[in-house]
Amino acid sequence: MSVLLDISHIDMEFPTPKGPFTALRDVDLKIQQGEFVSLIGHSGCGKSTVLNVVAGLYQATRGGVILNGKEVTEPGPERAVVFQNHSLLPWLTAYENVELAVKQVFGKSKSKGEMRQWIEHNLELVHMGHAMHKRPGEISGGMKQRVGIARALAMQPKVLLMDEPFGALDALTRAHMQDSLMEIQAELNNTVIMITHDVDEAVLLSDRIVMMTNGPAATIGEILSVDLERPRHRLELADDQLYNKYRAKVLKFLHERHSKPDVPTSKRKDKKAEAARPAATQHTASETETVDNAA
Ligand SMILES: Nc1ncnc2c1ncn2[C@@H]1O[C@H](COP(=O)(O)OP(=O)(O)OP(=O)(O)O)[C@@H](O)[C@H]1O
């Protein structure tokens, strides 16, 4: 398979009153068509910055992003973003919110009837067909997030960028959304980059988990390939040895980074203290472990 998205050696410096702040250093990642990649790392390490550079909202200080052979210099409909807080226009119905994006992308190429069919199709894909004429204020948080995803999918983006899309949802709704996303991805073969704080979510959904070091000057610490067969079912995976091995690997990475933020594991002197610390895998208190409570 060929590389669809090339995040090539990016550095990101932000100007601040105290001088330039280096958020990212040499982030280098090649993503193939149809891959599902998660970005995970401690709060403030630079995950959203990576996503914003790919979205074209930020320009990297060094390096760049190439999508399908073309450099990304500004936002574009081929890179749709889904945020944690849905960002729907409150005075428009679910249908009209999706319509706005569809008109922007297909206004010249699809007829009115074709656009209507396409909008309905995408709302049905996320199981929102029954509530498409409701406004955001009349539907639940999970439903709003579904509309946000339908809007992004309806743009037929080459890459779907998701910044903690399910972060604000309760556990049950979140599980439903994860299952829907897996179904949709199986059907459409979307290329997805998703930021998450949730280790189980990362392992369940991803082909690769990109683990970022702590900032400043954050970079990619390790990449874990998740070779679990699809379709994946959360209940079956709970007892799967390989699944639990992947989960433990991510937790271990996060624990080690948290105990000694900016020192690479190989250079640490306090290996004894490290060994005496409770193993990351002993955290079994909650079914879903997040980065912040993993530490
Ligand atoms: N526009 C900006 N100006 C200055 N500093 C910034 C700017 N945007 C981000 N930063 C800094 O860059 C670093 C990375 O921020 P970023 O939001 O990418 O982290 P994150 O990993 O997505 O965090 P979280 O998981 O908490 O959302 C942080 O130290 C942040 O304060």
Automatic annotation (TrEMBL):
Its EC number is 3.6.3.-. The keyword ATP-binding applies. Pfam families: ABC_tran. Keywords: ATP-binding, Cell membrane, Hydrolase, Membrane, Nucleotide-binding, Transport. It comes from the Bacteria. GO terms for cellular component: plasma membrane. InterPro entries: AAA+_ATPase, ABC_transporter-like_ATP-bd, ABC_transporter-like_CS, ABC_transporter_ATP-bind, NO3_transporter_ATP-bd-like, P-loop_NTPase. PROSITE patterns: ABC_TRANSPORTER_1, ABC_TRANSPORTER_2. GO terms for molecular function: ATP binding; ATP hydrolysis activity; nitrate transmembrane transporter activity. It is found in: Cell membrane. It is an enzyme of class 3 (hydrolase). Residues 7-239 form the ABC transporter domain. The keyword ATP-binding applies. It is a peripheral membrane protein. Residues 257-295 are annotated as: Disordered. This is ATP-binding cassette domain-containing protein. It comes from Microbulbifer hydrolyticus. The lineage of its organism: Bacteria, Pseudomonadati, Pseudomonadota, Gammaproteobacteria, Cellvibrionales.
